[in-house]
Write a structure and sequence with these properties.
It is a single chain. The chain has one domain: nmb1532 protein domain like (Four Helix Bundle (Hemerythrin (Met), subunit A), Up-down Bundle). The chain is elongated. The longest helix has 36 residues. 31% of the residues are buried. The chain contains six helices and no strands. With 187 residues, the chain is mostly helical.
Length: 187
Amino acid sequence: MRPTEILREEHQVILSVLSCLETALADCQAQGKADSESFPRFVFFFRKFADHWHHGKEEDLLFPALERAGMPATPGPLAVMRYEHDQGRALVAAMAEHVEGAMQGEATHLYGLIQAGESFLELLRNHIAKEDRVLFGMADRLLSAEQTRALLEAYARRDQEDSDPGLGDEGRKVAQALVDRWLGERV
């Protein structure tokens, strides 16, 4: 198994939740308020699973490994990926800021939540496509067998030593609950 396969599988979970978010945002517009059960879960999922769990592996382990293998930190793909991670964090923070008011049907907060959510959808879908189609292929070619093995070991250590043990499983459970609610499928 390659380290990029693990990240691609996590991308599939994230993309499923993005589809849920898209449906939930349309529901917000139709209902005039945010679903009070789902939107705190979206914020949790994007902060904890997508950012801390998944982007943490990329930023703390994969990107430095690629730099050690000769890929420049700037300019280039790694700088773009880090910048987009920061943009995503800002958009999730904006969604979080508006969730409570949007759940109460407050128009300003509903508008803010929808705007931030739609921007986040576009950003993260494009970001994932770039990683899956370009960056991960470069990583697969650039990393030696030894570097690949070391990176897989680092992923395993990170999963065991994380400050939120079980976060990967918890994130997947939240994803499944959102998919059940909004799409009625299995992740």
